[in-house]
Specification:
By secondary structure, the chain is α/β, with parallel strands linked by helices. The chain folds into two domains: 2-80 and 136-194, Lysozyme-like; 86-124, no CATH class. The chain has helices spanning 42-50, 86-89, 95-105, 112-124, 159-176, 180-183, 187-190, 199-209, and strands spanning 2-4, 7-9, 13-15, 31-36, 59-61, 67-69, 138-143, 147-148, 153-154, 184-186. Strands 3-6-5-7-4-10 form a six-stranded mixed beta sheet. A two-stranded antiparallel sheet has the order 1-2. Strands 8-9 form a two-stranded antiparallel ribbon. Helix 5 packs across helix 8 (199-209). The chain is globular. 35% of the residues are buried.
């Protein structure tokens, strides 16, 4: 495996690059974020990219476990969204920072969406790892899977998907000198998304690493 000019060169990865989901140079990779597509096939995600969708991730692992690179690794993708406050989620805020976070979250006269975006902008001013990963410095990996409203969870990744996501995460960790237990995240744990998004994937990777 090698990465040159943002391309992940391996016989296990195919390339189908979409310039529409690339949004400027990413100079440093500090983390990896795991996503689910809320779809039953990778084709629907690729069709979305083809039709002009601007939100996307660097890799897609389809229903068969095939790994497709969809954006250059030296380009930013809009895959994280609205950040949560890391210190509030982890109960590590200083007294002053907690006051600031709560003021942004509960500011009167603003919708919840506006307050959440204001907090996210505040978080993005911080350096990683004092904040959660952002679009500026993280690689996104989408894994095909539908969300169940009744179960409030995504379909379990198949064995092939589990093997593929574990393999590529470990390759990226090695290449970028990241740490598995501190630099790989489930999307639902860091942003205002379904809380279960990516959690199953992260559990698989951590279990395989034991």
């Amino acid at each position: 495996m090698s990465i040159e000019n943002g391309i992940f060169a391996s016989d296990k990865v195919s390339q189908d690059i979409y310039e529409g989901i690339e949004h400027g140079e990413m100079s440093h990779v500090r983390s990896i974020v795991l996503h689910r597509t809320d779809s039953s096939s990778g084709l629907s995600t690729l069709n979305g990219y083809k039709s002009g969708r601007s939100v996307g991730a660097h890799f897609l692992i389809d229903e068969s476990g095939a790994i497709i690179q969809t954006a250059h690794l030296n380009q930013k993708c809009w895959h994280v969204g609205i950040l949560l406050s890391r210190c509030k989620e982890e109960s590590t805020c200083s007294e002053q920072e907690l006051l600031t976070v709560n003021k942004l979250l509960h500011q009167k006269g603003l919708s919840f969406g506006k307050r959440a975006r204001n907090l996210s902008r505040h978080e993005n001013k911080k350096n990683y790892p004092h904040r959660f990963p952002s679009n500026e410095d993280s690689i996104g990996i989408e894994v095909v899977g539908k969300f169940s409203l009744t179960k409030k969870n995504f379909t379990a990744p198949t064995q092939q998907q589990q093997e593929s996501v574990a393999w590529i995460v470990n390759e990226l960790i090695s290449h970028y000198s990241l740490k598995l237990r501190s630099d790989v995240y489930a999307h639902g744990n860091i942003a205002r998304k379904e809380e279960s998004e990516g959690v199953q994937l992260l559990e698989v990777i951590l279990r395989e690493a034991k």
